[in-house]
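Ticket closed. Logging final result for DHH family phosphoesterase.
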Amino acid sequence: MSIEHQMSIEQLDELAGRAAKRILDSSDVRLVSHNDADGIASAGIIAHVLLRAGIPFVCSIVPRLNEAAVERISSQSCELTVLCDMGSGQPELVERLGEAVVLDHHYPRGDGSALEDSALEVNPHHVGIEGSFELCAAGVCYLVARRASQMGGWKHEDLVGLALAGIVGDKQRIQGPNLAIVEEGIKSGYLVPSRGLKVPDYPVEELFMRCYEPYLDITGDEEACHNFAAGLGLEGKRVDELSEEEGRRLADAVALKLLKGAHPTIVEVLVGEFYRAPAELVPNTIELADLIGACGKLDRAGLGVALCLRDRSVLEEARGVLAAHQERVLEEIKRVEGAMREMKWLRWAAAENLVATGVVSSTLLRYRYPPDKPLVLLNLRDSEVRVSARGTRAMVHAGLDLSSALSEAAESVGGKGGGHAVAAGAEIPKGTEQRFIERVHTIVQQQLEGKTA
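Final structure:
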C-alpha cells in the first residue's frame, strides 16, 4: 500500500471517529438506509452499535432519498439522523433533516463541500479513496463501528460479516480499505477464507435453477440443471459439502461454460477466494448478501435488518422471500433481453414494473453482451421511470462516468440521477424516455471519444 493510500485511510478513520462520537453522544437516533444489500448491511451494523450503546432508535429502509422519503422520515422526531448508503448526492434534502451524519460511498455532489454546513459526512471520495470499487457503505459503517467500540468498550469484530455482505452485494474488489477490513476479520476469526465457486450453499442442481449469478445457458431449466449436476457426479450434493476435488470439478465446469459465452474476465470474478462469517445466521457471505438484498427489493426490508441482527425466527421466511425474488429476476432478465435495443455508444431497453433493475442490467451486461458499451435499463412505473445503468471498470478507465451522464441527462428532462462512474441510477418523468436516452447517448459518446482523442 502506498504512503498516500495509507494517509487516506488514516484520514477516513479520523472522520469515522468523529461520526462515532456524534452518534454515541445522541439521546436517540433516526437510522435511514438504502434498500439494497449494502444499505441493509449498513443499517445492521449501525443498529448493532446503537443497541450496544443503549441508544433508542427507529430504522427506516427506503429505495431512494427523495421528497417523499424526507417527509416520512421527518415525521419521526429524533435528536440525530444517521443516513447510510445515501445522502452525499442529495445535500439539499439532507439539510432538511436537522442534525445528521451521512455514511456514504457514492460520488458527492459538486466539489463535495455541499454537506459541510448541514451534516457530518464520512465518504471515501473525500480522502481520495474510490468508493465505487474499494469501500462500500457497509465498510464505512464498519469503520464507524470500530471507532465506537473503542469509545464504548465493547467489541466490533463480529460485525465484519455484515461489511462483507455489503462488499459482495455491491460487487466491489477486495483491495484498499476493503482488504484491510477482510484482513482484520481473518485475524479476529470472524472471517474464514474459502476457495472455489463464489456461490450460495445450495444443492448443485438447485443452484443453477435459482441463481442468476452465474447466469449460464442452463439457468432456470430444471432438466438441464439436473443433467449438468448428474454429469459431474454431484447430484443431490450441497456446495458446502463438496470435497476439494468435487469443488474444483464444479468450478472448472462452470468456468468452461462461461468461457463459451460471457467475457473471460467474469471467470476471475466467480472463481477464487470468498469468505464465511461464523457469527452470522447465514455464514456464507454471498448467500447472506442475496438474502438481505432480496428482502429489500420485495419490500420486506425489516426481515433483512432482523437477519443482520441475528434473529433466527425470521430466517425461513427470508429464504422464502429470496426464492420468490430469484424466480422474478430470472423472468425479468428474459423479458428485458427480448426488448434490448442497440445504439452506437450504448444498449438500452424499457420494461414495465421491474423489481430488480440493477440486478437485471448487471446480469445482462456481464453474461449476455460483449463488454463494449454500457447498458441502460428504463423501468416504467405508474407515475415515474426509474433508470439503472451499468458499465465495466474497463469502460470507466476509458472515460465513462455514468454518475455524471445520468445526473446531467436526468436534470435535462426534469429528473434526478447519480451514483458511481461504473453504476448509476436516475428517476425521470414519464414521457421523457426518448429524450433522456438520446441525451445519455450523446454524453457517453463525448466521454469515451474525449478520453481517446
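The mean pLDDT is 93. No further action required.
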